[in-house]
Design brief:
The structure is a homodimer of 456-residue chains.
Chain A lengths: L15 H20 L3 E2 L5 E3 H4 L4 H7 L2 E3 L10 H5 L3 H8 E5 L4 H10 L8 E10 L11 E10 L4 H17 L6 E6 H10 L6 H8 L2 H15 L4 H11 L5 H11 L4 H17 L7 E3 L13 E6 L10 E6 L13 E7 H10 L13 E3 L4 H16 L4 E3 L6 H11 L3 E4 L2 H6 L1 E6 L5 E5 L11
Parallel strand pairs in A: 1-5, 7-8, 12-13, 12-14
Antiparallel strand pairs in A: 2-4, 3-4, 5-6, 6-11, 7-9, 9-10, 10-11, 14-15, 15-16
Helix pairs in contact in A: 1-7, 1-14, 7-13, 8-13, 12-13
Chain lengths: 456, 456
Amino acid sequence: MLQKPSIPKGTRDFLPADVARRSYVIDIIKTQFERFGFLPIETPAMEKSTTLQGKYGEEGDRLMFNILNSGEKVKKADVDALTKNNLGLFTKSISEKALRYDLTVPFARFVVQHQNELMFPFKRYQVQSVWRADRPQRGRFQEFTQCDADVVGAVSPVLEAECIQLFDAVFSELHLKDATIRINHRGILSGITTYLGAPKRIVDFTVTLDKIDKIGASGVFDELRKKGFGDDSLSKLYPLLELSGAIDVQLDTLESILTDQPVALEGIAHLRDVLRFLSPLHVSKLAFDLTLARGLNYYTGIIFEIVPPKDVAMGSIGAGGRYDDLTALFGLKDMHGLGISFGLDRLCMVLEELDLFPKTVQQSVNIVVLHFGDTFLQDLVPHIAKWRKAGLRVLTYPTSHKLKKQMQFANQSGAPWALFYGEQEKKEGFLAIKNMANGTTEKIKIDAFAASKFIS
Amino acid sequence: MLQKPSIPKGTRDFLPADVARRSYVIDIIKTQFERFGFLPIETPAMEKSTTLQGKYGEEGDRLMFNILNSGEKVKKADVDALTKNNLGLFTKSISEKALRYDLTVPFARFVVQHQNELMFPFKRYQVQSVWRADRPQRGRFQEFTQCDADVVGAVSPVLEAECIQLFDAVFSELHLKDATIRINHRGILSGITTYLGAPKRIVDFTVTLDKIDKIGASGVFDELRKKGFGDDSLSKLYPLLELSGAIDVQLDTLESILTDQPVALEGIAHLRDVLRFLSPLHVSKLAFDLTLARGLNYYTGIIFEIVPPKDVAMGSIGAGGRYDDLTALFGLKDMHGLGISFGLDRLCMVLEELDLFPKTVQQSVNIVVLHFGDTFLQDLVPHIAKWRKAGLRVLTYPTSHKLKKQMQFANQSGAPWALFYGEQEKKEGFLAIKNMANGTTEKIKIDAFAASKFIS
């Protein structure tokens, strides 16, 4: 008995309607990337393990999909390491490659490897799959698509301002009006930690702060207290969490509180520089968020995070930030970088949930040519070839099934038109073309059939 | 000391110019697929090993990239099997998934799995990467892209004729005029084998016959003699290899020789049915090739193979055929199929070699905005936003480097225009726009700058 076929957990098949929706989003993102001067690159699905290992922390190493060495090479399996439960060493003995875990580390590797072929500042975008052996759940897959744009080799508030404009442009094109672009700056978080009297505990502090959406301010205070932050620190933190009003106002308040923290003041000044480039524009959903603390193991300056509208239960749908030393991992120093990323899969789920996919997105054929016998179809061959050349998507029904069955097919195909050409039509030299939406039929002389009229 | 970063052998990075060329070809192929009524699907990069194993013969199993089970699961490694050199069993104990080896088997799995969501005849196309642990060489990679179109659930010469038209349309759009579409039919090969008195040796016979391009007719005779084919057989074969003239003429001759071989006659009749649909068209490079014998472990009817123009040393750049029982592997019988495939990577190499990529393919920005200081750029921000919204690809140089350096950048970027807006221009309320091709500069009022004029 054959098993019912299936695919690995956390992976997906995409049917034509799915591909159409995903392409719609990808096309919008790519178009905007290009309008902001980013150029496309692609990297291999498989990277050398040495390129990826150790770049994503312990969790990343654990969740990476390793490729088994081929053929005879698996004979080199380090059974001793297996026996001693040293799974890392065992894995290393039988695997030298792993699947791409994100697009950022391969990009850093790419920049170093191709530095003499590139022009800096280099702006690249990349839309490719990544793989993580994570436990699948809503919005989290083992294979998913990232859409990244990064610029390396320059530092300028212009670039940060353009990232924000780019987020805004993509969401505007997707009619996703209520997505919020949150910004923060590592310098500000660093300055606050010092201000609270715990200069070396930025990670400890921000890990808790980042939970404020889930556990509230009181939860944050409780957790920090448990972590050993004293009442003195916590009373200093309190007013910071009360910031409100326009971004400018918030930054002013922050500046007045952190007046003795130069690193924070630099961060604030930098955000002001960025905002200056945005002031003539209307970026409606830009918000300063002091509690935003993602990616602090690599972000060194501004931090971005995009959250969907409040009524959609979904994590971030985009993120980014400045990182100043990524390529140093591969031996190239002082290559400043700034990047943003869209999560295609979650973005599609949000658009789906909010019913924001245009009705016209569904890919389909323009016209189904019904089959009244091979000889009639043969008459049409040169015409159909012409229509296709003119851009019409023509599906010829391949066999002389009963008309009812053929019409059912035409209906389900979603084609707006069905073409009849049988004995009657041949005698009269006409095509009969049925409008599938309203059921009306019009007759057109074969040679007068203008394909363009029927291209929806 | 850090190692110079690199990627696994047989894989490639694609720089912007490479991606642009590949996208050019992919877009043409996809457009033609859609005009012939095929709809896109996508399947996961990773399939369950049970789906792929045993579907590609021994070689396929050997060249498949297996994914190591994650985390604690590798503890289940069957060390005993390893000791006994049973590498297959050992692999099975630590790996349950493998990378896609082609697009056909995943498609068969897809059709069976989603049969209730699909409408038959189902025409799908798929453009995705596949992975094979093959020894890398010119035109052969470990990661490469296939572009497949298949129709399942119908049998009709219309479909075969459309496959040939589709090949022709793609090559015509690519200006690859001299690619030859070779066709043959399994029934003809089968009939010939019987005619030669060796009805059960079709594979043995065709493996040798297929080498005729390399070893010539005399080489074929030598090899067949070694394989035990007698003089009687070989003298019967001789006239078959002498076929020449138009396809119709060749089929007539063949028919007169194989008059007692019903399977061959059926094949000939089928090819004639197909040709009847093509006769009103001008498919210039269609050739009947009796020695074409690829994929005989799955093709059951017509066989296609595309070879590049003679002066390009490259194997086939496209292939296909009818297979009548592929989904039976997954428990769904009587689902007839017909498919064609383009090898993107080889196709790109052929176009490169023949210099057939249009000059306009190179992706680039339309205009580089030079940087004369943040305040000047800030003035331009709302204008640049408008131009981008209108479709212009604008790259703003992010820092006030020396003008010479900025102009070098603009030059190398390939942008046709560079925009100057500094003290002088601000005073006069103009933009100065330099045509990078001829070096001339024109002045335009900021508000009168019509983005569309500068979209190349």
